[in-house]
């Protein structure tokens, strides 16, 4: 490419990036930072977005910063369905390894819930793009040069869909997927998904009941069989009823990624358990398997996301791999940071 043409191309990219930052920042109202409910140096701020079909909406940015103000790397974590950010150990791990840590509670989840809202409601996963944009703008404005995005389950689907749609406007450098929700795991009733999705186009609020099992919650909570404390008003013991509009939103994003036509052109770390189980009631095996999604489907569809995908099968991992028992979590964090050291620029 001739120097003049190269200069024009670079200036065009820079101008587009500046316009994106200005647009993303101007369309939201940011509150001031305040101490987060988790304490331990974590902070949070609300971001008010334009009203949607249900009324006012907001997202929440949570962060924990390294003590060294010369840090140039950061990570943005996106939680899953029936979830919110509560894993302060994760924040500590990244900060200890020299990354400013950020997480987002998406609209209608966790800290972002407004009285009267239908929790977790969505009609198109693009609704969450402004929530992610606002967090990334905050990170860029703090001076971070390299950004990693990490998503768990539905958050992994949303992060993948975001990057496949957005052409990487802020130069995200890597994507980490923790058991991403890339396909349904409904067994004999999965054939109904396209029909329910069609209903969702006409009647988006049509209720769709989910499993009443509490096995996954029992495998996590310290008060049952797990190691964790969290607010069960924000992460319910059993999956709540969703809507046909939500099913349509999930199915549409999955189909978009399944086509293989929308590649994510950055390194991807794809992590999943070595074993999946389908259960109604808790059993000891629930402590060493993914009882939410099919690990085989995660690998199958995860490999379609881009040309640089590293697969990591985690023996004994739970659905949320970073909530597995400590003897699994710590080696997995080592794996994550080793992978990042190979795929990010050396500074």
TrEMBL record:
The keyword Ribosomal protein does not apply. Signal peptide: none annotated. One of its GO terms (molecular function) is hydrolase activity. The keyword Hydrolase applies. It holds the Pfam family Hydrolase_4. It comes from the Bacteria. Residues 75-276 form the Serine aminopeptidase S33 domain. Keywords: Hydrolase. Coiled coil: none annotated. PANTHER family: PHOSPHOLIPASE-RELATED. This is Alpha/beta hydrolase. It comes from Candidatus Amulumruptor caecigallinarius.
């Amino acid at each position: 490419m001739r120097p003049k043409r190269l200069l024009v191309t670079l200036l065009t990219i820079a101008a587009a990036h500046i316009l994106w930052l200005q647009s993303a920042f101007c369309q939201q109202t940011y509150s001031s930072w305040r101490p987060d409910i988790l304490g331990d140096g974590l902070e949070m701020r609300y971001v008010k977005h334009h009203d949607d079909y249900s009324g006012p909406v907001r997202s929440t940015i949570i962060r924990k910063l390294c003590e060294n103000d010369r840090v140039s790397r950061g990570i943005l974590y996106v939680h899953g369905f029936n979830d919110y950010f509560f894993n302060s150990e994760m924040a500590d791990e990244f900060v200890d390894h020299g990354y400013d840590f950020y997480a987002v509670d998406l609209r209608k989840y966790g800290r972002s819930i407004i009285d009267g809202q239908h929790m977790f409601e969505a009609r198109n996963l693009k609704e969450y793009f402004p929530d992610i944009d606002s967090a990334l703008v905050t990170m860029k404005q703090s001076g971070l040069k390299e950004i990693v995005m990490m998503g768990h389950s539905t958050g992994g689907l949303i992060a993948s869909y975001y990057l496949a749609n957005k052409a990487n406007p802020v130069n995200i450098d890597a994507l980490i997927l923790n058991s991403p929700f890339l396909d349904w795991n409904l067994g004999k009733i999965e054939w109904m998904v396209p029909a329910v999705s069609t209903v969702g186009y006409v009647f988006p609020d049509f209720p769709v009941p989910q499993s009443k099992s509490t096995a996954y919650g029992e495998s996590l909570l310290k008060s049952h069989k797990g190691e964790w404390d969290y607010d069960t008003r924000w992460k319910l013991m059993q999956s709540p009823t969703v809507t046909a509009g939500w099913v349509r939103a999930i199915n549409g994003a999955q189909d978009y990624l399944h086509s293989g036509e929308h590649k994510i052109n950055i390194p991807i770390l794809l992590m999943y358990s070595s074993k999946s189980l389908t259960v109604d009631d808790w059993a000891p095996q629930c402590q060493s398997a993914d009882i939410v999604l099919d690990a085989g489907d995660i690998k199958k569809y995860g490999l379609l996301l881009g040309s640089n995908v590293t697969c990591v099968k985690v023996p004994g991992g739970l659905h949320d791999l970073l909530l597995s028992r400590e003897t699994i979590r710590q080696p997995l964090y080592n794996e994550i940071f080793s992978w990042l050291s190979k795929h990010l620029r050396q500074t």
